[in-house]
Amino acid sequence: MTSTAMSAAPVLEVRDLEVTFGSGQAAAKVLKGVSATIERGKTLGIVGESGSGKSTLAKAIVGLNPVSSGSIWVNGADVSRMTSGQRRAMRREVQMIPQDPYSSLNPRRTIGQTLAEAIDPVKSNPRAHREKISYWLSTIRLDADVAERYPHEFSGGQRQRIAIARALAVGPKLIIADEITSALDLSVQAEILNLISRLRTELDLTMAFISHDLDVVHHVSDGIMVLFHGEVVELGDVDSVYGNPKHPYTRKLIDSVPGGPGFDIGERRAAVA
Amino acid sequence: MTEPTMLNRESALFSNPPGATKGPRGGLRNLSPWAGYGLRRTGGVLLSVILLVVVTFFMVPLIPGDPAVAVAGADATTEQIEAIRESLGLNQPLHLQFLQYVGNLFTGNLGESFAYSTSVSSIIATKLPFTAELALLGIIVTLLLSIPAGMVVGILTRGGRRKWLDVSFGMLTGFFQAVPQYVIATMLVVVFAIVLKVLPAAGAATLTSLILPVVGLSIAPICSIARVVRRETSTVLEQDYLRTARGWRLPPLRLYARHALPNLMTTTLTLAGLILAGMLGGAIIIENVFNWPGLGKEIVTAIVNKDYPVIQGIILVLGFLAIILNLLVDVILGIIDPRTLGGGKSHG
Amino acid sequence: MAETTRTKRHFRWTTGLIIGIALMSVMILIGLLAPLFLSEAAEKLTANASQGPSSAHWLGTDDFGRDVLARSLVATRLTLVMTAATTAISVVGGVLIGTFIWLAPPRIRNAVLRVIDAAVAYPSLIFALLIAAILGQGAWSAVLAIAIASIPAFARLTANMAASISQRNYVSTARLLGVPGPRIITRHLLPNMAEPLLVLTATVFATTLIELSSLSFIGLGVQNPEYDFGRLLNEALVNIYSQPLQAVMPSIMITIAGLSAMLIGDGLAAATDPRGGRKFGSVKAASELPASMRADREALVEVDNLTVLTPNGVPLVKGVSLSIHAGEVVGLVGESGSGKSLTAMSIAGLLPEELTVRAHSMRLGELDLLKKNDPRTLATSIGLVYQDPGTSFNPALRIGSQLTEVSRIHLKQSGKTSFTRMVKALADIRITQPELRMKQHPHELSGGMLQRAMIASTLVTDPRLIIADEPTTALDVTVQADVLRQFRTINREMGTAMLFISHDIGVVQALCDKVIVMNGGKILERLTGAQLAAGDVKHPYTKALLAATPSIAERKTELVAVRAEDFTFDEITDDALGPVQAGTVQPETERLQP
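^ Those are the sequences you sent over. The predicted structure of the assembly is below.
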């Protein structure tokens, strides 16, 4: 990674990415040539239904899923051409916030230990990083003394905020949020979405925001990518995709959102209507 | 979702980590599910057999010091030791010994006994029926008693009802699991053969002499399996699909027999396979208590006499029986629960 | 949903655990003290051979004139030491293999797991005999034999636990953070496996105790002049006719040792079981709760002052009253914990049995739902659709046999008739290849297809009411639209009344004629679907919910973060606007609360 390349290149560039699970007759191609870029400070919303490959894409980008062909470029460097040492360093540049707030924090470690591990993965000493820990806790509007407490003392929304703080504490170039609000109630979801919006402006975050919920993606994203059976069917600016979808699947998806303008489930019963 | 708790060592053995059961949703493979299942199981059986053959083969070379000296004993002459070395094939390189061992296995030649100077296969042929009789009867009794008992207790104590039954069932089954089989067997002898004098204490002469060994062999596995069934029953009764069936207001018998039973059989049978295979080990102990002329009695004598060909042969036979038992269980599982075919047992 | 409160489990001391620990302490004490004081009586050969019980020898003497009681007590030390050593070796070996294979590449890990699986299939005693045959007879070769034979099972169990924990998000996140592999094991895997491992260790202690003494018993373990419980019983068996008492004491000792280990294992398991400690409440009590609303005799469903209590008497539903008219779709909307599902399941009579249901009245037509009703009438009058189609179908049975249960059991239709009718119902709801589907198992169908099949099965009995509990929550958005369309068609063409539960405001406003907003077990507001869609709401909680919902229709600069607990006040009713004639919840209901 050279610093000259870093300034010009997009934070993430994915080219013709393919991911196949299994082999031989049982092989299933989950991603079929996905290409996308995310510029610094932008958020790309990735939407799709189950089986669309959106979570596979997220895991491939952070290196948890093997890539069968295509390439992933982070800050202008091709991940596949890195040595294993470089790749290990690169891993910290891309952080993922997981979906389930109940399994994302180790129940046997305090919040302070969890955040210290993000700051220094090897030594993970909360006392050595007390200032940084309280800084990140204040960023997510939690008091510094919660560092002593264990995850079970927090609500789902608070845990999700802690998971966000852990991802931020690494100082990553890119954050991948994988369905981070889908396990939450509406009111808690609003709290998390507000936090994400605030952090985007305050910290100039670059983000891939994955969700099945078109309302939510619409709320937080600059650009939208629509995945369908492992293929990108539409990619573009959020307002143009939602306002004027080109692909029939995108149109169907948008029209299926209850309460949306195109939503129609047929006539009401005459007597009541 | 509750976290899996390891209430019982067997229960966790084949329980899948969450998420691992999400096999391919059908249609992904062109193979029929039974063919795929058969292939996977054949692989597993082959591996088990290979492991068994390799381990039994290495038994002799692994003996500390010179195996021939160990076999011949302290006051053997050099000629005697050399003769034993020859008959064990210890003069040849290891890989040739192994090839010869495998070759002999294929022809059913398990070697010659040192102690009786007859072929090992003929010893096994005379002893195996006794062990098979004992084990088979034990397995049947175990399955017939443990599954209904566990289910009834599971149903009666559902949702925390009848705490007293729950506690006494747990105490009773726990007690019989904690007492070694040979102690139970010895006590059976004391009570029924010595004090009451109603049943023979030992031997295999009459049909009544089967009763005590079978009871002694089955009590512990009955308790183990009944506990598994009871726990599985209470888990299954809390599943969503049982609420669906309750919503159809089905009669209780139909609800439990048709909707609960097949689902609790999956785990139960997987564990039962292990427990039933373990009964082969139990048979060795029981045979020694009741002086039962089976493989178990024979192998103990052989170990004391350092009669290695006989030891190898009996362990091979018992190992094969265990593999066959597990395979049988897998086939029954595949019939009862089609999800098993989709690779539900694969790990990780 | 995951939004259930998970409090940290606190350790529960059960009687079994206390007894187990007490017995084990006594055994350890005997093991420490007996060899110091009784060695001579236990080991010195005397002329008083094969005596019966006397004041000098309480349980008599053996063939060599040694005191049977003393020998049984002294044998405790060797037995416990051997068992502890065996347990230690197999636990350490098993945990090392079971955790460290997760650091290995997947290929090696799978290969090791397969070998372990193959080894687990053999009875460990046979395995142990093999090792004993190699090492020869003796105490320490028995320890090694049993320990090595127990390692595969323990490694398997540890690997399973490690597998389940390494799928938790905090482990994959730790990898992304760059935490080195061994530290992932020590920081994340082992601490979270500690409790089950402890339980397992106690169980392994009990089983090794049995197996070790079994080896001694058949003469392949401890050899003369050493002795453990198994060896003593082996000697006693020879004299069982002449000296039956000789077998009693070692039997008692080994039973106590095994039992205490088993009790400790079971007790630890129960103490750490999150499902444990549940109380059981009364089933269903029709009670003299006061009436709360004006009689709505025309309504098809009338629920008056419904209260649901936990076994501890904590109210989960606090005096809910609602009515559903024929042909009407009523929506219950609220967040988790609002009591909407409990309300619906009370009407269906399908609440978990430990909950207590009380109401002034609850009826469907002339059917009193507080009484025990004829199963056939209930099954055919109320159709039920549940949240997760993936778990609501019995995985072991074919779709067809499940869908036709009600027709065959309650309507006494033949298998053939019910099959043909069901195939037609599936075709009506636009399920492709209905005959094939009937013969398939649930795991072979998609969630949307299963949910539509469930809806179709409720229709064949022509029910008066369909209760749908979050029926689209587990579905994709396009499938959800399709299922909602199905509900709308059924309601329009067959006029079936529906109670529709959802957390999604967009869904209820689109489908429902009337919407009831619930929070904290109470009704806060009653609206029409149109009012909700237009944002014409009165209650601050409903307003806040709407403001908290992101929408594709407009981009809100900031969402309002709501805290459901802040809105505990009561229903707002305004008769001029109130669409439902139902009156207010009377203050009487408040007395129910503790």
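Chain A has ten helices and ten strands. The first helix of chain A runs from residue 3 to 8.

Shout if you want it in another format.
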